[in-house]
């Protein structure tokens, strides 16, 4: 019996674009930290980190709009208990919260720094005054948030793999392909 409904094409595309952007976030900042503060490639990686962070925020908004406009398939009750469905919803809410928290704190860091916010070469609006204490506090929150979202993303991947190879079979994975 196939009671797994696919997500809409727009949700699936946004999901995978966001997955790629979040991967770029981690890779670019890890590369920049490994290479040190000097160098044009390090500068490019930091700019890529900032730009992809702004894109994550934009795609999150698109995802929420697309989700509210279309049909959003629930997990099939024949395979997932109410408890599992509730845990999935809580996990999804926390992941969405972190996908909002990270770009917002990143924006605040750059806006309160002497460098301001740029989306590649385009200057973004200033919303805060330059203040080092704000920048340092929010930078610490952003770094903690990176660990938290990393944990959530790895948990999401682990649970998808578990359900893919578990009694539920490959149909769960196909919902997002």
List the helices and strands and how they pair.
Blueprint: H1 9-35, H2 40-69, H3 82-111, E1 118-119, E2 122-123, H4 132-165, H5 171-174
Antiparallel strand pairs: 1-2
Helix pairs in contact: 1-2, 2-3, 3-4
Key terms:
177 residues, mainly alpha, 2 strands, elongated
Name the average pLDDT. Answer: 88
N-to-C order of helices and strands: HHHEEHH
DSSP strand (E) fraction? under 5%
What is the number of helices? 5
Using only C-alpha atoms, the radius of gyration works out to 19 Å
Quote the distance from N terminus to C terminus: 19 Å
User: What is the oligomer described by this structure?
Assistant: single chain
Number of strands: 2
Q: Largest beta sheet: what is the strand line-up?
A: 1-2
User: Which stretches are low in confidence, meaning pLDDT under 50 for 5 or more residues running?
Assistant: none
What is the structural class?
mainly alpha
Largest sheet: 2 strands, antiparallel
Shape: elongated
What helical percentage do the residues reach? over 70%
Tell me about this structure.
The chain is built from five helices and two strands, in the order αααββαα. It is mainly alpha-helical. The protein has a two-stranded antiparallel ribbon. Strand 1 and strand 2 form a beta hairpin. Helix 3 packs antiparallel against helix 4. The model has no long low-confidence stretch (mean pLDDT 88).
Q: How would you briefly describe this protein structure?
A:
The chain has 177 residues and is mostly helical. The chain contains five helices and two strands.
């Amino acid at each position: 019996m196939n009671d797994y409904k696919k997500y809409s094409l727009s949700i699936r595309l946004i999901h995978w674009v966001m997955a790629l952007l979040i991967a770029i976030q981690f890779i670019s900042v890890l590369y920049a930290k490994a290479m040190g503060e000097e160098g044009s490639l390090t500068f490019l990686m930091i700019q890529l980190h900032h730009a992809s962070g702004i894109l994550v925020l934009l795609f999150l908004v698109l995802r929420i709009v697309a989700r509210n406009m279309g049909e959003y398939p629930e997990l099939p009750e024949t395979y997932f208990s109410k408890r599992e469905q509730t845990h999935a919803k809580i996990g999804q809410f926390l992941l969405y919260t972190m996908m909002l928290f990270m770009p917002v704190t990143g924006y605040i860091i750059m806006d309160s720094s002497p460098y301001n916010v740029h989306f590649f070469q385009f200057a973004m609006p200033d919303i805060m005054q330059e203040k080092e204490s704000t920048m340092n506090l929010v930078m610490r929150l952003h770094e903690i948030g990176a660990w938290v979202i990393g944990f959530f993303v790895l948990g999401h991947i682990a649970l998808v793999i578990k359900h893919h190879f578990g009694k539920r079979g490959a149909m769960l994975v196909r919902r997002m392909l």
